[in-house]
Design brief:
Number of domains: 1
Helix content: 25-40%
Order of helices and strands: EHEEEHEEHEHHH
Strand order of the largest sheet: 2-3-4-1-5-7-6
Strand content: 15-25%
Number of strands: 7
Largest sheet: 7 strands, mixed
Shape: globular
CATH architecture: 3-Layer(aba) Sandwich
Number of helices: 6
CATH topology: Rossmann fold
């Protein structure tokens, strides 16, 4: 079994914000895989399906970003999933809008959602797809990540969400290395 988690914040006021690119990517991936988000479990909205004969759980934690680890830990413990079968998709201010980066693990990079997950799982070796949102010029970090994309950034980010969904599908079917080889360094710019 594999679990893919898209990070974001619940509620319509956050739907189009920078911090919700993980949710946006998961919605697109679910559409591509013909999986519906039909139930609530593990403090999340979840969709279940099969890809290549393997069970897949797509999760959008409803705990708010900074408490994402609680939801992820609950699902990992319930299904007894190895951390190598877990993928997290989220926003990254250190990447410019339009860029994605795939990694097999690493630090939280200052991202509170990833920090929560690492803390709850007691491990940093969790595969991730990071979607660039850029850094704020004038706003505080909190205000910046909770703002919608301006049109010029959205024109760059939308294709990167599509690439991130494709990369997640490659991860599901072939693993982290092929996903990294095909999608790292790709930019919509």
């Amino acid at each position: 079994m594999k679990i893919i988690v898209g990070l974001g914040n619940p509620g319509s006021q956050y739907e189009a914000t920078r911090h919700n690119v993980g949710f946006m990517t998961l919605d697109l991936l679910a559409e591509n895989l013909n999986i519906d988000f039909r139930k609530q479990a593990h403090f999340s909205t979840v969709g279940e399906g099969r890809v290549g004969g393997e069970k897949v759980l797509l999760m959008k934690p409803m705990t708010f970003m900074n408490l994402s680890g609680r939801a992820v830990r609950d699902a990992v413990d319930f299904y007894k999933v190895d951390l190598t079968d877990l993928l997290i998709i989220y926003d990254d201010m250190d990447l410019s809008p339009g860029r994605i980066r795939i990694r097999p693990g690493g630090s939280d990079g200052g991202h509170n959602g990833i920090n929560s997950i690492i803390s709850h799982l007691s491990g940093r070796q969790v595969a991730r797809i990071k979607i660039g949102i850029g850094r704020p010029e004038r706003e505080t970090t909190v205000k910046y990540v909770l703002m919608p994309f301006p049109d010029q950034d959205w024109d760059l980010v939308k294709p990167s969400i599509e690439k991130a969904a494709q990369a997640a599908e490659v991860w599901l079917k072939e693993g982290i290395e092929p996903a990294m080889n095909r999608y790292n360094g790709i930019s919509s710019q």
